[in-house]
Amino acid sequence: MTGIVIVNYKTAELTVDFVGRELSKLPSPWRLVIVDAAGDEESARRIQEGTGAIRITDPASPPERDAAVYLISSAENLGYARGNNLGAKFLADHFPEIDCFLFSNNDIEIIDADVVDRLRTVFARPDVGAAGPHVDGPFGRQGPGWKRKSIREETLLRLFYPLTWPLLRRIQNERNRPAPSGFCYSAVGCFFMASRKAFEACGGFDPATFLYGEEDILAERLLKCGYRYYYLGDRRVVHLVGGVTRHFLAPSKSDRLRLESQLYYYRTYRNASGMELALYRFANRLFTGVTEVTVHRLKLLLVRLRRGRGR
């Protein structure tokens, strides 16, 4: 059986809609735990009424086993990694029949109803620890399927952006092309599955992270345990990017969290040197604080000039 984990953060209505509209498409049985991060009583009430969830006050105590949906409220905003770890542990502790975890955002549209069943089949391979489908978003394909990153390459691409812009565009276009099914480095964290055996073997998500970068970190943790990601290119979901973050995170804070996560990833899992990390930090700050703003303003200027000529 598949155990599903959703981390909810101040989007109770979105979660209720996702459970009723999208998860109902899945033909095979599942159990769901919703981790309501920084949740209050009103949020819990809305989720319970909308999904029929059983409220869990003590995740360590045996729950009512007949329910399909459970709700764990946390006064603390646990973030992506700790929230999903909490949900996965609850399911693993109390439901031994669960052999796979589906980690999903609540801003997902399931296009192929058999996506979970097809993802489950790839775990027949002993070296597959996690798997994800083709993910579409407003900016094109989000993966999975991209290659293992290099801190030096990423630094140079940002540091010399005006010169490397054609290469960045080519990389982005490559990521947006449909890819055949096969092994890949990591999957998009908005909707993917992990085998329970592999997830528990590698210790789950790194609890030191809060938001962003969890996919690549999990990839490294799985690799150390002999597991890999698998990309299922013939099944598709749509991610309505930023359904949560754009409402509750200012762009500047989002950029900062993303940068800190990447620095942690390269420092802890890729053994980057202090000099490499310092250059990477500088290149990213230059890119987000100066280059992107300048390029955006130039684009606006060109648009205005073209409109002026058209009159």
From TrEMBL:
GO molecular function, one term: transferase activity
Stored Gene3D superfamilies: Spore Coat Polysaccharide Biosynthesis Protein SpsA, Chain A
Record keywords: Transferase
Alphabetical list of InterPro entries matching this protein: Nucleotide-diphossugar_trans (IPR029044)
Protein name in UniProt: Glycosyltransferase family 2 protein
